[in-house]
Amino acid sequence: MKKRIHINQHIIRRNQKTGEREPVITVKTYKENTYCHEVLIDGPCKVIYSPDKPLSCGARVWVETEADVEYITHKELINEENE
Q1: CB of 64 within 8 A of CB of 80?
Q2: How far is the C-alpha of 79 from the C-alpha of 67, rounded, in Å?
Q3: Which one-letter DSSP state was computed for residue 13?
Q4: C-alpha–C-alpha distance, residues 22 and 35, integer Å
Q5: Rounded to 5 degrees, what are φ and ψ at 69?
């Protein structure tokens, strides 16, 4: 299954303003979006820059792969704000 991985600049800006540490990496498939802090790509992938045809979310640079992707979310970063 094809996966597109990109960085959500809006969440980066919001984290900067609020001090939160919400995940900024989005892994998109035709079925779902998964948000995480890190991804491990277990196979070939390509990085695409498409300024004239961005993704529907607005991303102009993304990684595309059919390989397995491991999602990592740093709960300690998210929970820091709640302590």
Answers
A1: no
A2: 31
A3: H
A4: 9
A5: -125, 130
Q: What is the pLDDT of residue 77?
A: 63
Residue with tokens 């196979």, as numbered in its chain: 43
**What is the H or E stretch that residue 78 is in?**
helix 75-80
CB burial readout 11-23, b (16+ within 10 A) else e: beeebeeeeebbb
pTM of the model: 0.84
pLDDT in tens, 24-76: 999 999 999 999 999 999 999 999 999 999 999 899 999 999 999 999 988 76
CB atoms within 10 A of CB 59: 18
Rounded to 5 degrees, φ, ψ at 62 are -155, 165
DSSP secondary structure code for residue 31 in this structure: S
